[in-house]
Description:
By secondary structure, this protein is of the alpha/beta class.
Amino acid sequence: DVVAFRLYREEILRWSKRVNLTGFSVPEDIVRDGFLDSLACAPLLPPRRGRVLDAGSGVGFPAIPLAVTCSALDFVLVEPIRKKITFLRHVVRVLRLPNVQIRHARIEALQAEDDMARAFDAAVARAVAPLDVVGRWLLPFLKPGGVFVAQVGPQTNRWGALGRLESLGFKVLEERALPDDFGKQGRRVLALQARGDRTATS
């Protein structure tokens, strides 16, 4: 795992010198705000086999660090920007991650596909839209009982957003505060379970 993370960090830095991929330009920031922040999701994912969806993967956070450490899980990374898709495919080859599939698409465009609808045990997304908007996007992909693992910052109006998510068909399972050395101060991870009786998915 150490070798994989070192290679991943170096590829982010190398590509970022010629392609505008991410705001990370310092190795320590990649480790703290990228790797550690992503790995904070791991305890809330399925403990054994399962499928995990990552919407708006960017350079692979949080899914690539999770795929390195959670080899029993299968990850589908969805990203609409071509240069980031090219980078993700390169990283998956370099790190030899057979448990990662890359999809070049907007997440909303995949809801009707047979292999995607209600097909995932968990879903993650990092800062691609407000919390309740992301939940609305991800809910159609989750199996009944599937979990949306949400990374939120200290400024998130979680009570209003959580109320809207509960009206969609989620219930809060768990909330964890992260240590300050795991990314930005006040960072939290929420586990939101998709109820089997949900009806509002659009």
